[in-house]
Amino acid sequence: MDRRRRRARAVGLALALTASATLAADSAPPLRALRWVSPDADPVAVFATEPTECLRQPTDPAAAKALEIGRAAFRTPLLLGGQAARAGLTCESCHRSGRGNPDFQFPGASGEPGTADVTLSLFSSRRGNGIHDPRPIPDLSGPRKQLKVARADLPAFIRGLIVEEFDGREPTPEVLAGLAAYVSALDPAACPAESRAPARVAALMDDARRVLAAARNAAVDGDRPTAGLMVAAARARLGLIDERYAALTSLRTRLRQADAGLAGVQATLRDGRPGAVRQLDDWLRESRSLEAALRSREPASLFNPARLSQAANRRLPPKAS
């Protein structure tokens, strides 16, 4: 092992230990994503609203199908590998709704808020360079020139990010093509008039159903690996709801039962058994009553900005004067 590789691994280990110690020292945040935002950020300003999505919808059915696969994969930690996946990071963690994230600040991986070091040994055993050199996170919905990648080169570029920068598994051709389709469809001309919208449980439930529709299509096509990843993305959306209902025990129980149902779909897909499409149809039908129950108690959850502020401020250390 040469000196540079030894140094890179040593730095990566040191940063990993630093990050772990930092996270363990803090009391558990009410929202997991609070672990990777600037401590000076206002939790309500960041998480009571979501950036709106600047997505240009294709008219061709095949292109629309590919886009939905990519959009779902963009939102699941399973796409990435190693430390990033274990921390719960997704592509969307840095690019919220396909935009940027000016508040992102991961321990050991960021400098100023809104930056990330993608050649960090903590995340990558292949591209880690042993140098702390965070770069600004680009807005994927901004001007095309920000990406500095030609449209035709996107699949290879995205594969490098997943496999080499984050030690993720080799994506299926369908997932890779879908991610390229999704990133290509992010367009500043498609941005809604409002740049942010209130965070709502209905939006996350709609998102879960949208993802599961993509899973169903993949299952019908016999593409079990892609369908499994789509189901994982839906489970990640349920996780975002679950943490906001932590104080509402009965609803949290229902959410975890719904998640167990999706885990069952994944097992069916993984084992190659028939029945995944029927399981998905049943889940999608039953999700309406779950959503109604969740919406009825939304004011008592952390979707309520006042409750979110109280929960976040209870665990934040006082700021230095």
Question: Topology of this structure?
Answer:
Elements lengths: L2 H23 L17 H5 L1 E3 L9 H13 L8 H6 L3 H4 L20 E2 L18 E2 L17 H12 L7 H13 L10 E3 L2 H20 L3 H21 L4 H23 L4 H21 L8 H11 L6
Antiparallel strand pairs: 1-4, 2-3
Helix pairs in contact: 3-7, 3-8, 6-7, 8-9, 8-11, 9-10, 10-11
Describe this structure in words.
The protein is mainly alpha-helical and 321 residues long. The chain is built from twelve helices and four strands. It has helices at 3-25, 43-47, 61-73, 82-87, 91-94, 154-165, 173-185, 201-220, 224-244, 249-271, 276-296, 305-315, and strands spanning 49-51, 115-116, 135-136, 196-198. The longest helix has 23 residues, at 3-25. The protein starts with a helix and ends in a 6-residue tail after the last helix. The model is unreliable at 1-26 and 316-321 (pLDDT under 50).
Q: Low-confidence stretches at least 5 residues in length (pLDDT < 50)?
A: 1-26, 316-321
Query: In CATH terms, what is the architecture of the largest domain?
Result: Orthogonal Bundle
Helix content: 40-55%
Instruction: State the CATH topology of the largest domain.
Output: Cytochrome Bc1 Complex, Chain D, domain 2
Sheet with the most strands? 2 strands, antiparallel
Counted by DSSP, the helix tally is 12
* Count of extended strands: 4
Question: End-to-end span in angstroms?
Answer: 47 Å
Q: Please give the domain count.
A: 2
Give the DSSP E fraction (strand runs of 2 or more residues): under 5%
Query: What general outline do the C-alpha atoms trace?
Result: globular
What value does the average pLDDT take?
86
Main-sheet strand order equals 1-4
Specify the CATH class of the largest domain: Mainly Alpha
Structural class: mainly alpha
